[in-house]
Amino acid sequence: MSARLSLLFTALIGVAMADETAAFHLEKLREMDAAVNLAIADGHLPGGVLWLERNGSIYQVAYGNRTVQPDVEPNAIDTIYDMASLTKVLATTPAVMKLVEQGKVELDAPVNRYLPEFVGDGRVTVRALLTHTSGEKPGIPSAGWAGYSEGIEKALAQPLGDEPGVRIRYSDVNFILLGELVRKVSGDRLDVFCAREIYGPLKMADTTFRPTANPRIAPTTIRGEVHDPTARLLGGVAGHAGLFSTASDVAKFARMLLNGGPVLKPATIALMTSVATPPSVEGRRGLGWDIDTPYSGPRGRWFPLGSYGHTGWTGGSLWIDPFSKTFIIFLSNRNHPTESGNVLPLRMTLGTLAAESVKYFNFLYVPGSLSPSSAPSPLPKN
Known about the structure:
There is one protein chain. The protein has helices at residues 3-9, 26-41, 87-101, 126-131, 148-157, 172-186, 190-199, 229-233, 247-259, 266-272, 344-357, and strands at residues 13-18, 47-54, 57-67, 73-74, 81-82, 208-209, 243-245, 284-285, 290-292, 308-311, 317-321, 326-332. It is of the alpha+beta class. It has a domain at 3-87 and 188-357: DD-peptidase/beta-lactamase superfamily (Beta-lactamase). The protein is globular, with a radius of gyration of 20 Å. Mean pLDDT is 93; it is low at 1-18 and 375-382.
């Protein structure tokens, strides 16, 4: 048997499940296993962790290795991954929405009410930052500065690239600014605020910025250090990237959203995960969350429009379907040992198979789901 086929039939590492057949078709779960193992065999990622959950039934699997250089280390369910842009929805968005609940932030207030040094005019609102319709450029220059204060100064002073409200332009700057807004309004740095208001109450013990040395961390470049270069320059705590977590912790957060709390109120969750972009803008996003854009690959073919999720550059994704009460998490370090890994096709395959695995739910008729819009064009890799 070839090495490639051997990988496909290697016993799965760290399988743990709670009556997997209660909510899922077993053959579809095996197809998901095969898809991940094939991607590993083809060199697209060293390993990953899958977590599929519906109504208390959980299918969780660790595949491949957490490291392949300089040593090979088998993967495990409790591997800690760099969340990359999942930071936007696991940290910054719920932090902002918590401040909205507390009456300290208004979504339609201009950003310069909270950040007076911001150069954008009054048309750039908190909502515009959360929906990526602010007109901000994708990032800030990586040269000529270092440290949180200098980086925030650059973000506040950077001219817009578009008129506000014209289009969705995915931008890390939006969430760098939102992370600073949380700090200014709450008086606590983003990591401190999230630990107290979100991760502590949900018992997300492995979720943190700037983790201490831990052999469970899956490396991308330097083990335990955020992969995103701007987040590194900002000191490891930023609104767009920097969070580390495990699949089980992300599952606690997803479960909270589906259950309507307790960290956020049901009305807040509904507002956050509903379409918040103007009808004139192509594509649909919630507050922080992706709904129907070129980034929506993890939705697959069948999860209904109106489900929501997000992806991360390092290879992680989360997609939540409130109609079938299902969510799928896939975490990986596709950047290890090089940046050549690619999980885009795998994410879409897993999203499709996840829906096909769900028993007793008709994804072809979902009352309350959104009507299709024009198909968004595909994005470049990862």
